[in-house]
UniProtKB/TrEMBL annotation:
Alphabetized PANTHER family for the sequence: CBS DOMAIN-CONTAINING PROTEIN CBSX2, CHLOROPLASTIC, TRANSCRIPTIONAL REPRESSOR CCPN
Pfam families according to UniProt: CBS, HTH_11
Organism: Romboutsia weinsteinii
Domain named CBS: residues: 83-139, 148-212
Protein name: Transcriptional regulator
Keywords for the protein's UniProt record, in alphabetical order: CBS domain, Repeat
InterPro entries from the UniProt entry: CBS_dom, CBS_dom_sf, CBS_domain-containing, HTH_11, UCP026546_HTH-CBS, WH-like_DNA-bd_sf, WH_DNA-bd_sf
Length: 212
């Protein structure tokens, strides 16, 4: 399916038609304070794609058959920084017991591990903690750095990236969440964690757009 990128004026036209259907092109132009000629190409696109239906001497109706296209446009406009949550960060020498307590008190699926310079160095999930507990590790003494997943095996994302890229990474790598990082321009190996992108963030965004 080809998703057509609608501009802001076209989206406004759709809203006007939905609220006032049937409505003439003259009335739409008046609502937007533009001429009919200005809207000609916009209305042509919206009718050709099936989003609007035009009836002679009656006006424009909203058909809605391409609502999925509009949803795709709105998702593509969203950046990771628009929906990311606060990250839960712990030092790599924190013992496993403290990590377990933090994870369940924070109600997150993963915790990001940093070193003394606040550089991302690991990630730990509920599955990792469960394995350590079942395996008989002394969770009160063993540091989380002993069982965490280390770089370069950590999937990350930048705040400027599209939410769709984040969703794709989560699905492809079968993970619950990933750290949103800022990479030092002078030291590419230094990554500061500034947020968390999770399945929950993305699901909430999808529901918000769908409800609107």
């Amino acid at each position: 399916m080809i998703i057509i990128q609608l501009n802001q004026r076209q989206l406004k036209i759709i809203d006007i038609v939905k609220e006032n259907e049937p409505i003439t092109s003259e009335s739409i132009a008046a609502s937007l304070n533009v001429t009919r000629a200005t809207l000609r190409s916009d209305l042509a696109i919206l009718t050709m794609t099936g989003i609007l239906d035009a009836r002679p001497k009656v006006g424009y109706f909203y058909s809605g058959i391409n609502e999925l296209n509009l949803l795709g446009n709105k998702l593509k406009d969203k950046k990771v920084e628009d929906i990311m949550a606060m990250p839960i960060l712990l030092k790599k020498d924190t013992n496993i017991y403290e990590v377990i307590v933090n994870m369940f008190l924070s109600d997150v699926g993963s915790i990001f591990i940093i070193d003394d310079n606040e550089n991302l160095c690991g990630i730990v999930s509920r599955k990792d903690l469960l394995k350590a507990t079942i395996g008989g590790a002394d969770i009160n003494k063993m540091p989380i750095g002993m069982i965490m997943t280390r770089m370069p095996n950590i999937v990350t994302i930048n705040k400027e990236d599209d939410v769709l890229l984040g969703a794709r990474k989560i699905i492809e790598h079968e993970i619950d969440s990933m750290p949103v990082v800022e990479i030092d321009k002078e030291n590419q190996n230094y990554m500061k964690v500034i947020g968390r992108l999770s399945k929950t963030n993305i699901t909430k965004l999808f529901l918000e757009i769908a409800d609107n």
